[in-house]
Amino acid sequence: MSSDLLVDLNDDLGVDDPPSNALDQLKLSPMGDKLWPPDDSSMSKSETDISKRLGEGSHLSWDHPYYDIARHQIVEVAGDDNFGRKVIVFNACRMPPHHELDHHKLLMYLKATLDQYVESDYTLIYFHNGLTSENKPSLSWLRDAYREFDRKYKKNIKALYIVHPTMFIKTLLILFKPLISFKFGQKINYINYLSELEEVVKCEQLVIPTRVRVYDEKIRASLKPSVQAQMSPPRSPPLPNQQFGVSLPMLRARSSDNEAVPLVMRDTVAFLMDQGLEIEGIFRRSANVTLVKDVQHRYNSGEELSFSQMEDVHLAAVILKTFLRELPEPLLTYQLYNDIVNFHNVDSSAKVTAIRNMLAMLPEENYASLKFLIEFLVQVSAQSEINKMNNTNLAVVFGPNLLWGQDAAMTLSAIGPINNFTRTLLDQHDKVFSP
């Protein structure tokens, strides 16, 4: 991956200011116009059922002003990356031909989607494969789009990953160099293979278009076997004191005091209760990548940690979210997935009873940990005038870390219902968890 693109390539190609019709003169890779297998979007059955209920291919109802854009699934939200940042995905291959797409409305829909997340640190992943001469936008649209996204949107984007870049997209970035700030340019990274993306986000949680997967397999197959082996190293076996990626029953069995709530949750919550309740934007900021990996390694090695000595509230917040996200099965369990994504159908007067009945099905460790977490988040929300994290904001942050489909893929169709359930859980916590 490289983030020094705009400087290096500009020097190599000798490009200065972009001509007005430069984009139209650029040629796409010949492979871009070839026929590819139809895109089934690799959605799980539960995801597909949600899409059909809300409108084929869309998380919006058919009469929503952005339905005709959303149905193409060009823009998706896929939970958090490996460093606690929200992930926004843009799929070029799902853009229809020019005459079938209102590009201005696409821009407004993208802004409306980002508006829900730009107060938090976030990552943007752009799957470039599938951009053809028939669906590529005009240079003027791209210029206007970049200008439309003011500092509000650029401030908290921590990285833009361009997957399967071509000379077309590299040249395009050079042409836009006069418009792109140096600081934003440093956030741009090229990803040549999906395996490289694993360093940023678990690919299984992304609904990657079939066309993109096929292309990735094609270019990987062209590599020498020795290089392929280097790109797919075997996973290391779990350590004896592993804390991340281990089931709750196993963590409890390892605990000297038979504690149902895992050590990482107890440590992070204790520190955040003491130091984090009045920190504005708690859970919205990411942490230093190296520190996150170091803390995980130390926990997995059996070391005792003190977040008080580190004095980093955002690090503790990211570690808590990371722990939940790396559980082999989500805290709310796969068994409750369909009930939760259909929870909006439950009558208001029956919601508390429905939640209590659902939570009664949880294993003891899951129930204890969920209750522990929700009671803490209620304390965070109680300080929302200071920290700006009310129940709605907390639900947006924690919803995707409490539940995901069995195939781990996350889409807008699922995130909305999961976040709404999480908000209700916070709103009604006193009734839900009462004896």
From TrEMBL:
One of its GO terms (molecular function) is GTPase activator activity. Residues 9-50 are annotated as: Disordered. SUPFAM superfamilies: CRAL/TRIO domain (SSF52087), GTPase activation domain, GAP (SSF48350). One of its GO terms (cellular component) is cytoplasm. Residues 65-220 form the CRAL-TRIO domain. It comes from the Eukaryota. It holds the Pfam family CRAL_TRIO_2. It comes from Salvelinus namaycush (Lake trout). GO terms for biological process: negative regulation of endocytic recycling; small GTPase-mediated signal transduction. Residues 246-433 form the Rho-GAP domain. Gene3D superfamilies: CRAL-TRIO lipid binding domain (3.40.525.10), Rho GTPase activation protein (1.10.555.10). This is Rho GTPase-activating protein 1-like isoform X1. PANTHER family: RHO GTPASE-ACTIVATING PROTEIN 1, RHO GTPASE-ACTIVATING PROTEIN 68F.
